[in-house]
């Protein structure tokens, strides 16, 4: 039986699902990847634990004891119907921490309505991130659930030479300095006493308009 705290069931061994499963396996998590396509299962069987099964079949879900997994990722991208049915079957099996890949806004809305806790549009999320990076404003960009975003930027000119506390970043701009990294140095927690230099990289969190305000000064 899977360790319910760390075990992950990944449904679908396409590019997205196989990448998720491989990464989890490399991180030492207890992962099982499932696909109905025997060729995909055979391709990945020597790399990660796999099993051939159709998760749109409630009996197959029961046979692999899906309810013992703490988390499931439904990575089916070629059929909205199969994605929705598999998600519903896994929720019925008792998996509450469920991540599901969507291919459209309508697909995402259905997944949310049936109870998927996390809905991922991999192409849209990746496209938005790349767009922000290509714009040159950010060194890195991560959109969180809800209104907040985490970005990595170079120190804005108006706070160079000031400590986080003296610059009153949170009270003036509404953003939080999570961490600061100077060239060649280790990442440091963004305490109020840390001084920000011109070439430092700041990891900040806030709403998009707050971040824009902070960067513009």
Note down, in words, how this protein is organized.
By secondary structure, the protein is an alpha/beta fold. Helix content is 36%, strand content 23%. The strands form 2 sheets. It has a 6-stranded parallel β-sheet, sandwiched between helices. Strands 7-8-11-9-10 form a 5-stranded antiparallel β-sheet. A hairpin with a 6-residue loop joins strand 9 and strand 10. Helix 4 packs parallel to helix 5. The longest helix is centred in the middle third of the chain and has 13 residues. The protein is elongated and about 65 Å long. The mean pLDDT is 91.
Termini distance? 55 Å
Query: What's the β-strand tally?
Result: 11
Helix content: 25-40%
Unreliable stretches (pLDDT < 50, length at least 5) are none
Strand content: 15-25%
Query: What is the H-and-E element order?
Result: EHEHEHEHEHEHEEHHEEEH
Overall average residue pLDDT: 91
Specify Rg, calculated over alpha carbons: 21 Å
- Main β-sheet, spatial strand arrangement: 3-2-1-4-5-6
Number of contiguous helices? 9
Question: Strand pairing plus helix content: what structural class?
Answer: alpha/beta
Shape: elongated
The biggest sheet, with number of strands, parallel, antiparallel or mixed sense and barrel status, is:
6 strands, parallel
